[in-house]
Amino acid sequence: MRISPELEKRICRLRYAVNVTDEERQAIAGKLRYRASIWQTAYDYGACPEPYSAGLMRVLRDEVTDAIGIDRLSPPDRILERLAKLAETAPVTGETSDGYHTFDELYHHRAVLFSVIVAKFPDLSWKSRQHADGTMYDGMFIVGIDTPAGPATYHYDVEPYWDMFPCLELDRAPEWDGHTPDDAIERIASLRGSVLRGCRKSYAVSRLVLSDGDITRAPHCGKRPSDHPAYLSLGEQNMKKAMISQPMAGKTDEEIVEDRERAVAALTAMGYEVVNTYFSDKWYSDEAMKGRGVVQVPLCYLAKSLENMSLCHAAYFVKGWEDARGCRIEHEAAEAYGLEVIHE
């Protein structure tokens, strides 16, 4: 004897979750667990919960256990618990898989592949621990690349991905232009021609512009006006980079920012792109430092500054640098490694 086609259809719906809403799943799971508890209580007290015919129960047991993939001799409570698990919505986590890859694997693959693109076009790429408005998701950063079709950005976990992207570090990311994930991948695809040719194509990309202390991106128009200052060819994108070394001890935040803005203006006038060495985001707050186990805070700042020096052709030293221990070390490193040294 076999169960009816209708009952078989219901079992299949449970097994494969076809057209079952989350609410329906939860309702079915609740009913099945209730029935399982009745069976369990009946077995505990040696009583049959309901006067079902033995023949019908055997058929139901055999068909259901075959359908859900457990032993036919399993007790009813186990059978119903298995059905409940099939009916419930599985939580989506990093371990969720399509049968081939988990979300965690795909996330890692995307990070590695995008880091290769960034390494190929370092002069078009940047990363930051802050959005343009100073916010950021916990433990994450944003990395972007300027393409012929516009900017494309992704977010990644700081650990372990921050050091995977060898590009310019910005204190804050440029303003988001509203691009979607579909836009991002289409824009990245616009770099394909440059890769296939084995050289970098001469196209217009939007320049990162410093205005009132903030970094913004001029609008992308798709073409490069011959006299438009907001656009650079890739040849021009290879402009030299410089860092700023400035004494901070004993100065107010306003004085530090004023010194920095004056140095940025001087370097910009000389044609340099300024690499960030003023670390003011949450990653470098006292609380974050303590959480990472940093003992020598000034040394941590110096180490990061020296790391960013490796991206530079020149180092600019603000007045009073001779009296600051960190500035003196940066000055010695700049001279030892052949950077152009500029004094205010």
SSE map:
Layout: H1 5-16, H2 22-45, H3 54-68, H4 76-87, H5 103-120, E1 125-128, E2 140-147, E3 150-157, H6 158-161, E4 168-170, H7 181-189, H8 192-197, E5 205-206, E6 208-211, E7 214-217, E8 231-232, H9 234-237, E9 241-245, H10 253-269, E10 273-275, H11 286-291, H12 297-309, E11 314-317, H13 325-336, E12 340-343
> Can you write the helix and strand succession as a string?
HHHHHEEEHEHHEEEEHEHEHHEHE
Largest sheet: 4 strands, mixed
Strand order of the largest sheet: 3-2-1-4
Please give the alpha-carbon distance between the first and last residues.
95 Å
Radius of gyration: 31 Å
Per DSSP, the total helix count is 13
How much helical structure, as a percent, in the residues?
40-55%
Strand content: 5-15%
Mean pLDDT: 75
Unreliable segments (pLDDT under 50, ≥5 consecutive)? 13-20, 196-237
Number of strands: 12
Oligomer: single chain
What would you call the structural class? alpha/beta
Globally, the shape reads: elongated
Please explain how this structure is put together.
The chain has 344 residues and is of the alpha/beta class. The chain is built from 13 helices and 12 strands. The strands form 4 sheets. Strands 3-2-1-4 form a 4-stranded mixed β-sheet. It has a 4-stranded parallel β-sheet with strand order 10-9-11-12, sandwiched between helices. The longest helix is centred in the N-terminal third of the chain and has 24 residues, at 22-45. The protein is elongated, with a radius of gyration of 31 Å. Residues 13-20 and 196-237 have low confidence and may be disordered.
